[in-house]
């Protein structure tokens, strides 16, 4: 098909909009389910943010028939003695998970990629993926069986040697490390898929040329493999940074288990929203908190993407 031309006479690489729709019609059809899902669950409910500026009650017949209070919910939020404690807990745990959860999949992907025996490689990949498909309820049950202070497997093992044992999942001094470790363990295999796909896109001829030039495996790793996956690393990091104020709601709530000391250490925005919103029926304040999280996440994403652009990476836009 001959290329059409722009008004200034330059050839148009992709043609007009109608030509592109006709040429890539099947690709656009594949986009429809994703677009519909996004519209139904993200765009349509967007009008609900007005609750954050109202004194919303369940007794009202319409979302727009409530007292308008402006920024009072935000003032309450920032004046609350719990807000900055929860903010610190959320950022602290998220940064630890981000640091460990960002590096671990890369290392795992490099290790799996280095396996030359294909059947063994497939087994390792499958085993590493499995934890991601377990719900946090199942993971919590497994942790209880292994680490419980009274009947846990480790408790019995320690007792047989006469050693003192403390359950790390119920100890306020070790709970943060335990939550980070369990989150990384659960998601590392699935996250490594992205890097394995990126590794498969590196031209094998580069490794062959490096081998001919006398480069050893470590040198090829530093000069070919890592630079080859750095663009993917940049995109993953940008996307993860935007979720710093999120957090694993199920994980935190299950491991808190009503323990006040652990709750004080691990309370994040996800569980805090649940407690003041669904349990405390303060829907307007919860919405204000959600707006703050979204804006903060958007700012972080934009800033990280801009930083990636300055460092020479494409980013997400």
Q: What's the short story on this structure?
A:
With 317 residues, the chain is mostly helical. The chain has 14 helices and 2 strands; from the N terminus they run ααββαααααααααααα. 19% of the residues are buried.
Protein described:
The chain is mainly α. The protein has 14 helices and two strands. A two-stranded antiparallel sheet has the order 1-2. α3 crosses α14 and α10 packs antiparallel against α14. The chain is globular, with a radius of gyration of 25 Å.
Global geometry: globular
Largest sheet: 2 strands, antiparallel
Poorly predicted ranges: none
Count up the helices.
14
DSSP helix fraction: 55-70%
List SSEs in N-to-C order.
Answer: HHEEHHHHHHHHHHHH
- SS content category: mainly alpha
What gyration radius follows from the Cα positions, in whole Å?
25 Å
Tally of strands? 2
């Amino acid at each position: 098909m001959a290329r059409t031309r722009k008004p200034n006479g330059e050839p148009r690489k992709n043609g007009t909009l109608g030509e592109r729709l006709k040429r890539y019609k099947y690709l656009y059809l594949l986009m429809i389910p994703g677009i519909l899902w996004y519209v139904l669950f993200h765009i349509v409910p967007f009008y609900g943010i007005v609750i954050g500026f109202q004194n919303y009650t369940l007794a009202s017949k319409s979302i727009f028939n409530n007292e308008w209070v402006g920024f009072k919910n935000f003032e309450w939020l920032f004046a609350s003695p719990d807000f900055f404690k929860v903010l610190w807990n959320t950022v602290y745990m998220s940064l630890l998970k981000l640091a460990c959860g960002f590096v671990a999949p890369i290392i795992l992907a490099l290790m799996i990629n280095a396996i030359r025996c294909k059947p063994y490689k497939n087994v390792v990949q499958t085993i590493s993926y499995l934890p991601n498909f377990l719900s946090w309820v199942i993971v919590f049950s497994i942790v209880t069986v292994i680490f419980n202070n009274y009947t846990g497997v480790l408790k019995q093992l320690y007792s047989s040697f006469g050693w003192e044992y403390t359950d790390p999942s119920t100890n306020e001094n070790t709970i943060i490390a335990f939550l980070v470790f369990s989150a990384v363990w659960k998601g590392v295999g699935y996250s490594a898929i992205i890097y394995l796909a990126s590794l498969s896109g590196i031209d094998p001829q580069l490794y062959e040329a490096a081998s001919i030039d006398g480069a050893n495996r470590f040198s090829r790793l530093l000069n070919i493999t890592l630079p080859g996956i750095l663009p993917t690393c940049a995109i993953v990091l940008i996307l993860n940074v935007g979720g710093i104020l999120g957090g694993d709601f199920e994980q935190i709530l299950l491991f808190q288990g009503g323990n006040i000391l652990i709750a004080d250490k691990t309370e994040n925005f996800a569980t805090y929203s649940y407690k003041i919103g669904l349990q405390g029926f303060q829907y307007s304040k919860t919405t204000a908190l959600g707006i703050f999280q979204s804006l903060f996440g958007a700012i972080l994403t934009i800033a990280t993407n801009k930083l990636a652009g300055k460092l020479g990476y494409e980013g997400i836009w």
